Amino acid sequence: MAGITVRLAWRNLWRNKRRTLLALVAIALSQALVLIYDGVLRGYTDWMVDVLTGPMLGHAQVHAEGWRKTRALDKSFPIDGVLRAVRALPGVEDAHARIYGPALGAVGEEGFALVVVGIDPAAELGAHGLLSGAKGVAPSGKRVLIGRPFAEANGLTVGAELAIVGQGADGSLANDLYVVAGIVPTPVDMVNRMGVLMALDEAQGLLAMPGEAHEIVLRGRDVNQAAALAAAAAALPELRGLEVLDWTRLSPDLYQVIQILGVAWGFILLLVFVAAAAGVANTMLMSTFERVHELGMLLALGATPGRLIRIIFVEALALGLVGVLAGSALGGSLVALTHERGVNLAQLTGGGPSELSFMGIVWSLTFHPTLTAFDFATSILGVAVVSLLAALWPAARVARLQPTAALRA
Question: Final residue of a domain: which of 215, 231, 249?
Answer without folding.
Answer: 249
